[in-house]
Amino acid sequence: MDEDPDTLLKDEITPRQLYFSRRKFLRLSAVMGVTAALAACGVTPSASGTPQPDVETPLDTIEHYNNFYEFSTDKGAVANLVSDFVTEPWTVEIGGLVNNPMTITADEIISTYTATEHVYRMRCVEGWSIVVPWDGFPLNQLLAAVGVKPEAKYIAFTTLLRPTQMIGQNDPFYPWPYTEGLRLDEANNDLTLLVSGLYGDPLPKQDGAPLRIVVPWKYGFKSIKSIVKIEAVADQPATFWDTIAPDYYGFYSNVNPDVSHTPWSQATERRLGELGRRPTLLFNGYGDQVASLYAGMDLNTNY
Ligand code: MTE
Q1: How far, in Å, is the centroid of ligand 1 from the Cα of 288?
Q2: Quick check: 275 pLDDT over 80?
Q3: Ligand 1 atom closest to Cα of residue 124
């Protein structure tokens, strides 16, 4: 986990690229009907209704194009700044309004819960997107183990605060540590993952090692990295981006092509590695699984 990511990549580049090509072939075969069963997230309907293949973004891109403000606001610089970041040992505190609060190591979480692969689209509010084979398990398994009390309505998440290694945290403009939150039913949705790996390997540090949250129907900033605290709370928690720019970044931040509270449109996106732009889908294409969570809500007001 603590190797230099560049060394890791050089050592493993051949098998990983072969792995990627094989997976790409399988996924494209599925789209073209060679295989009857389409992977759950393998195909995105386009605006015209024609399926578009969701080819997984190469590992090299996922590892070298990162938003991780604790290190830098320069996406290309993050991978070079994480080498001294110590992610072992790592402890996560799970508490607040729960029956069995616990302080547990990342290793214990990883060995207790079975991680499986989930290929999800991730859409950043900046207008780019990637497709990532995450290894993780539904967060609801951990929440069930701690027993969330009925008075809890939200789950709050906190990233590590360690400015000696996370050098971006020395910038006093930002409200460190990075925090995020979900409504309890969103946190309990099967799509919401606690992730410990991608492409079958432990999570690279720049992608949120050792544990991060992934919420695929929301803009990427809700998928908080390198978490040390999970708390069940009664009131909607303050979040990093909502604190900095509440008009741009609402608490819900569901992917929505029709609602642009940012100065730029959210109607289309650039899939990294593709030319041109593709239409952005409501709930990032996961409406079947999550639209019912927002029944009766005005998504323009509750952005
Ligand atoms: N989590 C923390 N702690 N700090 C961050 O700066 N950036 C967010 C999110 N989680 C961020 C974070 C944003 S804006 C995005 S788009 C995704 O992480 C990017 O994840 P990736 O670098 O693994 O693609």
Answers
A1: 25
A2: yes
A3: 16
Q: How many CB atoms lie within 10 A of CB 117?
A: 14
The mean of the pLDDT values for the chain is: 88
Q: Which domains does the chain have, with CATH numbers?
A: 10-294 (3.90.420.10)
Query: How close is the Cα of 230 to the center of ligand 1, in Å?
Result: 17
Alpha helices by DSSP H, 76-199 = 78-81, 106-112, 139-146, 184-188
Atom of ligand 1 nearest to the CA of 227: 3
* Contact indicator for 51, 43 with CB cutoff of 8 Å: yes
Share of the chain above pLDDT 90, in %: 81
Contact between 28 and 38 (Cβ < 8 Å): no
- Whose structure tokens read 């908080």? 224
Ligand 1 shell residues, CB under 6 Å? 66-70, 124, 159, 178, 207-208, 220-221, 223-226
Please enumerate in sequence order all residues whose Cβ is within 8 A of that of 220, keeping only pairs 6 or more positions apart, or say none.
67, 122, 123, 124, 125
In this structure, which residue's CA is closest to atom 24 in ligand 1? 66
Q: Which residues contact 83 (CB under 8 A, 6 or more apart)?
A: 4, 5, 205
